[in-house]
């Protein structure tokens, strides 16, 4: 009888141990919470281990869950650029163009270079001009525009502000800033390069003033008018 009880107890103990082990293995095998943050950190780990292609796939998983997870999109865009997949990189960098707190001036160097690599020279020059407006002046970008036009003279008109009227209107509030930027180059009239910058940026500011949307007229009810002959004026009100 004792032997039977011992066997039964051993069976119970074995079953308990087995069930505990199975539960532990399931817990280990259970995937962690699938969040964009989790995949982004995993992608960074892949990059650190020099598995950049694998990192692209992981960042893509993060974006499948949350397309607005910008850290993953930026990381993926830079990897696409690294692997010379310029069309895919451009798609990711373009995403930020209309995003709050980003806009034309953010990641513009990647975006413009992708367009150059893809032969989209006209669009690249448009982007450069917009960056100049967004910054309120950017001599380095202007110099880069000139270099590109020297290589592709068929786009020389892109240096003419009249070819960017929509952008001039869009950034018309930047005219004073751009004018001030131009003035910084006017102090040394013997420096031909500086005078070229001065004239270029000053011309843009003038065009922006001309194209700026008309301001709504101010209400005239509270504006003092000249008294009519014979009218008694209460000077306290004035």
Word description of this protein:
By secondary structure, the protein is mainly alpha-helical. The chain has a domain at 120-213. The chain is built from eleven helices and no strands. The protein has helices at residues 2-29, 36-48, 52-65, 70-82, 86-95, 108-117, 121-135, 139-151, 165-170, 175-183, 192-211. The longest helix is centred in the N-terminal third of the chain and has 28 residues, at 2-29. The protein is elongated and about 60 Å long. The chain starts with a helix and ends in a 27-residue tail after the last helix. 27% of the residues are buried.
What's this entry about, in short?
By secondary structure, the protein is mainly alpha-helical.
């Amino acid at each position: 009888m004792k032997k039977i009880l011992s066997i039964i107890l051993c069976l119970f103990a074995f079953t308990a141990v087995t069930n505990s082990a199975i539960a532990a293995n399931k817990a280990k095998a259970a995937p962690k919470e699938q969040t964009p943050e989790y995949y982004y950190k995993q992608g960074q780990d892949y990059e650190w281990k020099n598995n950049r292609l694998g990192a692209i796939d992981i960042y893509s998983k993060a974006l499948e869950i949350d397309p607005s997870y910008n850290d993953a999109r930026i990381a993926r865009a830079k990897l696409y650029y690294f692997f010379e997949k310029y069309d895919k990189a451009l798609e990711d960098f373009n995403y930020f163009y209309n995003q709050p707190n980003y806009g034309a001036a953010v990641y513009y160097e990647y975006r413009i270079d992708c367009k150059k690599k893809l032969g989209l020279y006209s669009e690249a020059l448009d982007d450069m001009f917009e960056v100049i407006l967004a910054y309120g002046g950017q001599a380095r970008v202007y110099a880069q525009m000139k270099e590109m036009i020297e290589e592709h003279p068929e786009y020389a008109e892109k240096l003419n502000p009249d070819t960017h009227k929509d952008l001039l209107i869009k950034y018309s509030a930047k005219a004073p800033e751009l004018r001030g930027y131009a003035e910084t180059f006017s102090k040394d009239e013997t420096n031909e390069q500086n005078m070229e910058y001065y004239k270029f940026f000053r011309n843009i500011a003038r065009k922006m003033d001309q194209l700026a949307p008309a301001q709504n007229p101010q209400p005239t009810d509270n504006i003092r008018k000249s008294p009519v002959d014979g009218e008694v004026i209460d000077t306290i009100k004035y």
